Amino acid sequence: MTIAHRHATVDGQKIFYREAGNPHAPTLLLLHGFPTSSHMFRNLIPLLADRYHVVASDLPGFGFSDVPDRARFKYTFDQLANVIDRFNTTVGLTRYAIYVFDYGAPVGLRLALAHPERVTAIISQNGNAYLEGLSEQGWNPIQKYWREPTAENRAALRSFLTLDTTRFQYVHGVADEMLVAPESYTLDAALLARPGIDEIQLDLFLDYANVALYPKFQDYFRRQRPPLLAVWGRNDPFFLPPGAEAFKRDIPEAEVRFFDTGHFALETHANEIGAVIRDFLGRKVMQKAAA
């Protein structure tokens, strides 16, 4: 399966994306998280592109997309979602399922709030929308910064931007660390180390206080009842299993599957997760499209 590596110009900025599959097939939009890029989907895309049109973009300031200057581009999740919304229009995505991971959740769920008619299904892979999904270990330092956005609390978060912490995010909770390709966290760390990226990421840590939007996301789930599949690394140190189970509170027919791995579940369980997604989308999207 051929994967094309492209750029689309959105508001004068280049947005990098990977694309595979028949453009006339049902579309699946893959949205990455921190501190990674569409590179995290390199093993998943070939498992789905024979049946779906798969598009995975890099958020502004991440991966191989442009990095707008903070003086003229405010790094907030509202802004990231606005850019991806315009990216979708630019590349002709009018209806799609979304796969949301980590930061991809507040981006993708904003798209769903803005355009519920466009979203055919949601796949959440450790993409949280409930307070009970936030771990104390992973979020206490960041929540302190939300409550008191001082220079001292901002500086305390720089440890999240190191190679050691990036590697930790990949290997924690994994049964065999040898299954995690070292280029994954090494590439992420190299891109994080570019000049100015640290301040961008610290801005986004502060704006992740967008947990205030969780009730709106949950109201959307209850009103729209989108087909939803949660595929969750049960050993994630940041987003806990109760966050996955909580989807069923608002969408009783939501499907939840746990895997014995960590935050970056695709690094060790791409084949298993890919098979579950194929089955889910086949039942929820392909059959509906054929009806």
Detailed description of the structure:
The chain is an alpha/beta fold and 291 residues long. 43% of the residues lie in helices and 16% in strands. The chain is built from twelve helices and eight strands. Strands 1-2-4-3-5-6-7-8 form an eight-stranded mixed beta sheet, sandwiched between helices. Helix 2 packs across helix 3. The longest helix has 25 residues. The chain is globular, with a radius of gyration of 18 Å. The chain starts with a strand and ends with a helix.
Itemize the secondary structure elements and their pairings.
Blueprint: E1 4-10, E2 13-20, E3 27-31, H1 45-48, E4 53-57, H2 77-91, E5 96-100, H3 104-114, E6 119-124, H4 136-147, H5 151-156, H6 163-171, H7 182-192, H8 197-207, H9 214-224, E7 228-233, H10 241-245, H11 247-250, E8 255-259, H12 266-290
Parallel strand pairs: 3-4, 3-5, 5-6, 6-7, 7-8
Antiparallel strand pairs: 1-2, 2-4
Helix pairs in contact: 2-3, 6-7
Q: Which descriptors would you attach to this protein?
A:
16% strand; 8 strands; 8-stranded mixed sheet; single chain; 291 residues; 12 helices; alpha/beta
